[in-house]
Every structure is written in C-alpha cells, then in structure tokens.
Amino acid sequence: MSFLDFLGLSGPRPAPGEKAPSGPEAETIHRIVEALEKMEPARAKKIAAFAFILSRVARADMKISDEETRAMERLATAWGNIPEEQAVLVVQIAKCQNVLFGGTDNFIVTREFSQSATKEEKIELLHCLFAVSAADDSISAVEENTVGQIASEMGFTRRELIEIRSVYRDKRAVMKDLP
Length: 179
Prior knowledge:
This protein is mainly α and 179 residues long. It is built from 9 helices and no strands.
C-alpha cells in the first residue's frame, strides 16, 4: 500500500491511453512520496496523524491561514524529523484530508495517534497545537476549544491542559481583552 493510499489520497489512476501528470512538480512529489513510503509504516502513520491533528486545530475557524500552514510545516519537520519538502507534502495532504473528511475522521485519527504515542509525544502535540493556533499571534476561542477537545480525546485532564495552555496565555484572545 502506498503512502497516498494509506491517507486515502491516491485518487484515480490515469485511464489507459491517458497521460499521467509530468514535469518538475510531478517528479518532486513522486520523489517525496517514495521517501515517505520507505519510512517504517508505523512512523509514517504517526507523522501523518500528527499533521492531520495540526490541521484540525488550524481549520477550527473554517480556514487555514498561510501562517498556520507554515507553522504546521515547521512543526512537522521538527517533530517528525523529516526533510522540509516531505513535511510540506504531508501538511498539504493532511489539510486536504481535513477539509474533505475532517468531521468524520477527527476523533478516529486522534484516537489512533493517542494509542501509539508516548505521553511525551502527546504533550509535544498539545504544545504544537497551541503554536499553530498562535501562528497569527492570537489563539481564538474556537481554536482553544478545539485544542481542549483534542486533549480530552487523548486522555488529558483539565488540569494538564490548563498547565500547558498557560505557556500561551499572552496569545489567548480571551486574555488580550482583560485590563
């Protein structure tokens, strides 16, 4: 099974006699997909789930900004220890999947990630979710609520969430209006 098949994005194959996309972009994507397919499947799956969950919070307000996209790419590169071009592809795939199937897959992907992740990885993910939310210098209430929902799905207590959230208090929209 290819990485794109795993993510449900392999799409239809060109019909007989129909030419597949070509050119430098197609070659780059092909190279990246090949590199991702060479990863251990469990690692590739975890990185894909990580990116999907990041896109879940980025899309909480029904749009994913350029700042949020760049933040997700940086975080996927660092967290997944993958080259930037692979992270860009993984984030783009995750964003598309979230737009197409987000409501259906949100809980399932989060549960899958949670079952395979260590406590430290889950804590890192929460920090990354707040970082993506703060990419535009403000964590909206809807983004904060989405992070809270994800934290709950991963088994975090309210206290644990508040402890992590406190690191980002200066970015929280609800705190910016206080005297």
